Queue: 4 jobs
Job 1
Amino acid sequence: MSEEVDISVEFAGIRLANPVFTASGTSGYADELSDFMDVSSLGGFITKSITVNPRKGNATPRIVETDSGMLNAIGWANIGLDAFIEEKLAALEKLSCAVFVNIAGETINEYVAVAERLAGERAIAGLELNISCPNVEVGGISFGTDPEQVAEVTSAVKKVAGDKVLMVKLAPAVTNVSVIAQVAVDSGADALSLINTFTAMVIDIETRKPILANRTGGLSGPAIKPIAVYLVNKVYNEVTKSLGIPILGMGGIRTASDAIEFIIAGASAVAVGTASFIDPGCSVKIIDGIKEYCVSNNISNIKELVGSLEAEQNAAN
Amino acid sequence: MLEKSSAVKRGVFSATVCSNKQIRERFYRLVLEFSGAGAEAFAKIGAGQFAQLDLSDTALPPVETIPDDLADVAERKILLRRPFSFADVTTKGNKTSVDILYCVVGPATLRMTTLSARESVSVLGPLGNGFWVPDGKKTALLVSGGMGTGPLQHLAKILTADFPDINVIAFAGARSAEALPFERQLDEISQQLGFSLPEFAKYGVESLVATDDGSAGFAGPVTDCISEWLGSSKSAGKSMVIYSCGPEAMLARVAEIAREKNIDCQVSMERRMACGISLCQSCAVECKTAGSNDTFYKLCCEDGPVFDSAEVVF
């Protein structure tokens, strides 16, 4: 019966076998996951942030658990562009799912340098532009909160991205996320991913100091899911629906039901983040669960579900 | 030479609780049993390797039994797994059982106390690299602080079984006699004989106890105890190896003593970690290479948790 359900997705011109990605920064360079799942069974895979030069990352503690969530402040720890290309691309090229590279930088030139080098790599389907990281001193979220800078960095990267899909990852804590989303799309974004983590803090009341060495970190996990669903729905209604631009929805997804909420809200695909830390193979279960939901709800093509939120509130409540 | 043992067949396995015994006020010893693929994966793990336990669905103990200092944190819902190393690993037929020595310090270990026989627990592992035995060693000193004794008990078992030519001596430190995480109280006679801790004596391993307040064994930090012992030892040097696990300040001092005496030293590090499989990059340990001032981060989960003490920046 499930074979009759089509959960493949057309995502900014790329055909995905299913709508489930693993989110950047929660799934390494893919080889780390291979003991727990077949990474090729995903719809898409997104690498951790890649910068021009290698980065050590922040001092520890880099994480702290919160109620139904966690804060992280890793600080773009990565092996750098050259080592990424030399050591990681060959394995990524063997994956049959769509591979996106999350790119980051402290200056527009750094974003452009990474994008330019990766634009010619066959292993890569797209670039995810990280303009929403709350954990670095320079760059990151500062690019994603000011519409002018969003326009500048997005259009600069678009110019060198060649045929790669350009997906812009949005910060949630802005006055109006739709304004930023609109600017990104107007500047050349082929897709949007939202949301990144919320800047947050946990304090040790004995020492009266923040627990994280970076003072603040990005809040992720189930705690942020309802806000993420709302923001996806808002951007879908106000920006992307009329333009046919796909949204990769994320924020606290642990189960197929969570993923389906995002799809109903307007996401064409979803990404699993923090949940992979607890169950590194959970994305596979989520793919299966989406299929089962479609079967039991007589949905023959997942497209029918995207943005299918009813206008009226749930009468049962 | 015993090579670094690393996780080869890791996965998420279901383990069954055999027992969960309170050994002192805050200290427990949990025995889990694996069958099938889990038994195979955990059968040959090295001392110092670890696993991540999912305790998010484990029940809280009755409110009236929760210590006052944990009353607030008990309210917290936990999300992430928690890392534990093993005090013993035994195989019987096609089953493997592992002992976890733990101390109740927060919401997860508080829940852990309610695990009872036949309950199942999700275990992700085995993870990381354990202690290794360099060539040519004649003496191994196992130096622990508090709960750090766990993986060193497992190491004592492996060393005495597989390296009969190595003389093994355990040093166990804690703040006070009450804070020693061992099953039996120490009696004076066994202390004088030097086989004071049954956890080590059962492997024929001599053990010395140190308490900061002098309430048991050597009066003072375990690092002073080992310093004094090395001072009177004729064999200190290249034929010796120190294995250490405990609070980081203690490890730093042990590393310093080892450097001064030109003794190889391995330390088991601890960091806050989310995943244990290098996805989250949170458990960074600052390291350096000999002759360079440049530092870099290694991951406690994947590169450690056991490190050569000479490479760690304390």
Note: Chain B touches chain A at residues 10-12, 54, 56, 76-81, 124, 271-275, 277-286, 295-297 (CB under 8 Å).
Job 2
Amino acid sequence: MVTGSSGADTTFFGPVAQTARLMLYGLVAVVLMAMDQRGHYVPKIRSMALYLVEPVYHVVDWPARAARNVFGQFQSHRSLRHDNESLKQQLLRQKGALQRFAALTEENRRLRALIDGADGQTFEFQFAELVGVDLDPFSHKVVVNRGALDGVQSGQAVIDGAGVMGQVEEVQPHFSTIRLISDPNHALPVQINRTGLRTVAFGSGETAALKMPGVPRQADVREGDLVVTSGLGNRFPGGYPVAVISRINRHEGQTFVVVEAMPLAALDRAREVLLINTPDTAQEEAPDNVDLVEKSALQQDALDEETVEGETVEGETVNKDIIDENVMGQDLEGEDGE
Amino acid sequence: MNRRRDRPGVLVATLLAAIVLTLIALPPALDGLRPYWVALVLIYWCLETQGLITLGLAFSIGLLLDLLTGSLLGLHALSLVILVYLVTRFRARLRFFPTWQQALSVFALLLNDRIILLWILSLRGDPLPSLGFWLPPIVGTLLWLPVFLLLDRFRGNMRRRAAAR
């Protein structure tokens, strides 16, 4: 038992050397953590190293995928038919809602063009599924099965069927890691839909609550108000539902009230998510879309107002870049004419 | 003690199994109960072999675990280094404890690890976790004996196979 074969442990100053090593490693670990927390260098190294260890995720996801496949095989014909029917109904209902949405988008775009505001943007979505990998429960991250090879980029916004979930943090070839909005280090620029009041929603560390500490005392905020993204910060596109205000703490003598809101997205339960291609990533196709919609908006204008001259419309379709100014000028002319 | 040598493949295999168990998705009801698998496996190897698990090895395994679980880089590294240090320090005593006493010391180790994690979380400004935070050490302690026996049998089989060759 007492053999000296294993090196430093059993020599005279073994324990001392061991303690010194413990201190050293402990120090390195603490420095690493601090740097990771502050975002110095370490996140870059981390995302590079993740490329190397990606196979582990494949291994871990395999049983879950296999189980899903087997389960799918044995699903009964009847339950499939039932699912199919209810999904069809749901699709029809949502199509109905979307018909109105298209009209509203167009109207919105026209109005924005009138006031020379920012373009209403159209976004592309990418479907992704959560992988059967559970990360550290204190890190508020999830892994989805789309990665760099599918065109995912760090910083993309992620939503599920009900609301905003988070943003892409690290990208690997086949997977990417998403930081949820419930992370205490996550801040999301939002606005209250009813009043337009802009504020920032911070994660609380729990999936059931967001915190909005920057709401002035006099502000018009009520429980049940819908909170949507404001689009400031250029990361999350504006107008996506985030949460519903659940509690308002009004302490006497404080300038700000602390507002708690309940996220709409199923942060801890969602299986399917959508990645939003922000305009930066979808820049190539954006001009075409804008052009198309502008053209149809122009046609609409032409139908609405007889004062529009044909030659201006032609001029505009040729010249994409100054389309906004033209629309603006043309409409002003129209008003002047009347 | 049997002086036949373990092949490193056995250690790697058990550690990989522990990492997979750490990452694999559990139903939400069981999610909060997941024991610290890697710690259990490392305690086993520390107790049963001498000089195989160094602090440097524990540190590297911890870093790998941090990378894979997406936690703060260095979190698991710190926790595993401290754990391995304690086990190697008290190895001579721990090895000859009766089973229940050994399980109790494993509980103490896992609890200590939890306290370190709590300290780091609070430094980071996270809110204090709920009572469920203290469940994994209990689950880990209950699983210690089965894990120990399983690993022992696996290792014994591998050694016998190596010797027969």
Note: Residues 8-20+36-164 of chain B form one domain.
Job 3
Amino acid sequence: MEIFDQLIETLQTGSGFWNPIIWILIIIIAFLLIYVIRGFGKKQYKEKTGQIQSFLSGNPEYEKEQMKIKSSNIYWGFTEAMKWIYDLLRKMHNGNASDYVLWFVIVMSILSVILLLVGMVG
Amino acid sequence: MNFLEFTPALIVAIPLFGAFLTPIISKINEKARNIFAILILLITSCLVFILTQDVFANGPRTYIFGDSNLALPVVRILFEVDGLSMFMAIISITLALLGVIYSWSFMKENDGLDKYYTLVLLLVAGMLGMEFTGDLFNFFVFLEISCITSCALIAFYINKGESLEAAFKYIVISAIGALFVLFAVGLFYAQYNALNMATIASVLQFGFLDKIALILLIAALGMKAGLAPMHMWLPDSYGEAPTSVTFILIAATQASLYGVLRILFTIYGNAFTNIEFVFSSAIIHWFIIGLALITILIGVLMALIQTDFKRLIAFAAVAEIGYIFLGIGVGLTSLGVGYGKTALEGGVFHIMNDAFDIGLLFLIAGAVYYATKETSLNKMGGLARNMKYTAVFFIVGLLAVSGLPPFNGFVSKLLIYESTYQLNPIIAIIAILASILLLAIFVKVFYSVFMGPELPNLKDVKEVPKSMLVAMGAIVVIIIIFGLFPNLIINNIVQPATNALVNSSSYISKVLSVVV
């Protein structure tokens, strides 16, 4: 019985709460609403006619295999905008084991300086 | 004589014993060897769960090797298990068991599997030893065992140059890290004539040498746990090791994370709560929060530009480690305040969620590799047609790792976000934005691997064998249960672990009470 109580118990997070059961109920209601709205759609839809052809601003439609966007091209705009960060990160991740150790030494040095010098206060 | 008295030692001894028997059984029959490895881990799992129940109900348990009495100076090997040890042991043994089940089909085409299973069982013994020992030198020994076995397993594809390079980098990093841990242990021994964690914690002065030891331990174990900017070895190793090994390596990495927790809360816990050292403790706590934020950002940003499936997940794993450290850092900063405990619960719960979420994604990457022999995301597409179960498992994994409801990742991240927001809203906002970016990254992966038109070279791809599906399915079930019933997990598994962290006095007094 105690376990059952815990199953349906609401998780208190201090300033908020989380109850997945309530969330699932909301999702079910949302799906029902979607289903109802879908019911208002046009029933005259015809397959294998011009109705299903894509319109690419007047450009010809390529074969499906050619339409696939490569993984490295997705979010191109984001990576281009953040180019300066990526240049820095790529330099950091150079695959050199000596540099990996160097980062370890850097972190240890920073922590030493802060803790031993500033920490002298208390 | 009580059977439970011996369980801490048996939990480490059984996989160790199994490791040495595996090559002999391998001579008889390969199937028998696989069953034997699973059986060994099943027996160990049963013992872990029996001991967990006992520790959660009755408090920490000790096992002294060689003698029932302890005398000062405490240099005898001693196992001490509390709520945190058991929490970590549950994660380690579950990952190891599922990893070995997955290996059955995944590794069957490879040679040298007798060595593979031997090394896996040795790695399990090493991880569990790290989590159970109450002795710092013993911790170093188990750390070395896990490092050497991990290195050998990373280099398992010995014909691949990249695997050997990754293994080399791993052993360089591990050896340097372990050396600094040993140096810190030496500093403690020189000062206090003790190697036992509880004894050191009870007499720690937090003087100059103690601060040096703290710096060495945090940097070395933080590097082993994958904390940025010392994380670079992690994508190399995770990316090149066989997938089943990567899956178990997550637990090995988390064993180092356990070391950080043990150092911060048990050994230095009293010093941090001392008003005399308020500045020093604040520096350490904010340093951890700062590194956690850097880890999250570097992990997420680097994951975005990866085109190798496993390497991408490895960077996401780095980001997830950042979330764990963020929860722990916020918890340390505000331990006396209400939200401090919430942050700590979130951080500790996220250790478990990270292991299962990232672990599932790695297993899926392995399944895709098994079916297509391809790791580049640019060369994949349309796999959902032929790998329906794997595709569904990936959806669960991507939603869980991105912290979307109703999966497990959401619950722990919610606890971390809310408590971090109360400490500093800007940090919480950055963490949430990084999580959104993580979702965007895995949506890209889902599109690249499973959606889109069927590629001509991948038309004949088939779903992976049952043993691999069983391992992935088991994790999916765990993720859903953890997400739907978070209180069940938090009340029964997470809270005993966080209580053990916060009330380190029970851990310390347990050992001191048996010292003659």
Note: The radius of gyration of chain A is 28 Å.
Job 4
Amino acid sequence: MSELSAQFSKLARRQFLGSMALTGVGAAVACEEAFCGAGVDLPPLVDVNVNLFQWPYRRVSGDQTPILVETLRRHGVRQAWVGSFEALLHRDLGAVNRRLFEECQRFPGGLLVPFGTVNPKLPDWQEELRRIEEQYRMPGVRLFPDHHSYTLDDPDFVELLRLAASRKLIVQIVLMSEDERTVHPIVNVPQIDPKPLLAVVSKLPELRLVLLNPFRVASVSLLAELASAGNVYVDIAGLEGVGGLENLVKVFPAGRVLFGSYFPVFYFESAKLKLIESVLGAEISAGICAGNADRLLGKS
Amino acid sequence: MLFHTPYEIWDAHTHLSGVPGKTPEERLGNLLRYADRLGISRLCVFMGVRWSYEPTPEDFRQQNDDVLRAIAAYPDRAFGFVYLNPKQLDASLEELQRCVAQGPMVGIKLWVAEHCNAPSLDPIVRRAVSLNAVILQHTYLKKTGNLPFESTPMELAELAARHPDATFICAHSGGQWELGIRAIRKTPNVLIDLCGFDPTNGVTEMAVRELGPERIVFGSDAGGRSFASQLAKVLGAQISEDAKRLILAGNLKRVLQPILKAKGIACE
Ligand SMILES: [Zn+2]
């Protein structure tokens, strides 16, 4: 536990225990649990937007798995859906997915749930999908269309969604890996247009689609349209604006909002503090923290 | 939700846009409601309800009136910075007189009306120095292309080198902070604010390493940005507790101290 977390916890616990004493309730054990993170009394989290290994453009704290795991645990994450940053540039995705699978296995307790990557522009990409489901038993795939240079109306991509749905795999699409204004000068990463998804998801009712970092490229009204057209979820890592979550759930179904941190590229605290900045009510909050993701995964 | 921070937190960079409210004071009230949840006690606020890239004197007077109205409703929570356009030099100097010399504002905000290394900035900076007013200059380095008169951290370093007695804040760390931090490294009278870009892991650690903790201020760019995502850059950084205290409030207090004192504004 960092010095900061320790301080947060101490203060919060003192305050909390104080209020408990006043009401005559003495639930010290529950309190210890509640404040296991950074001074925030959130339930255990399911983080659907984490990646292992090195972000190609910068070393960050958390790009080594033991540190990543320690950070997630310290913040009260009980399950993290992890992709691999190696998938951004490596073309031997067979090896990338194998390393991802093995790395997740090294950390017991089911904390890290691997989501392998498929690039539908590579020859025989269907074999990747087969291994992900049959060999590794992963619950889903994570796609990086910006780094793999395809649009969301590409027939190969649409075919991938169809096959993934028929294999009952969750599909996560990273709609933005980095703000287009700050990407490395030699990297030509196109901004992804999410509009073609509307036509696709309405034709695939069995598809479970999670849009990661969608907010810079998709308006909330488009996301709401997508959610009513199909089984579409979003994560909150890229959500901005003051009271962002409060505003989001006014127009987008709260049951389709998932906790995602985009750690370790983003500071983990960002997503967590959004749950404090917005007042959501216990039910919605519990859904975002874990319940919605549990339900989504449970359907696997 | 319970959230308690052991830190005092002042926000160097907020706006009246991107937050609901029929009047400027209602907007600031709403902003403060969210700030309260994260333990942010003071906000620097600038620019009005409706923005323009190259404001006419009427435009910026209107926007500053919005801010004056808003901060009058929360004198113990908010500081105003006057929004100026160096291309409208005479009117800007008059506005500086109205809002800072004779009014309650304590700093200057410059956005994208003019490159900040232009000579028209010099009289504004000289007047700011005589008033002890801090100058917060928007800077960005966009791969996708800057606006025609949008400033870079390199341009701000030029201006700051011409005015070693002035205090500048390089807003947004230039967006591409790995470049922005380097660009202002050799001009000690420039601080950076950490707002207005994604909560990218490592920014605050690099800034502390290259500039020292005394040259960094927390800002959010709320309402366009979330207080949470921007505060995470400091709370989540692997830096010392002392560095956090400086960045979250200490440095901003230090640079505002002379003008607050001159205006008799208590801030403890
Ligand atoms: Zn701003």
Note: The pocket of zinc ion is lined by residues B 13, 15, 196, 221 (CB under 6 Å).
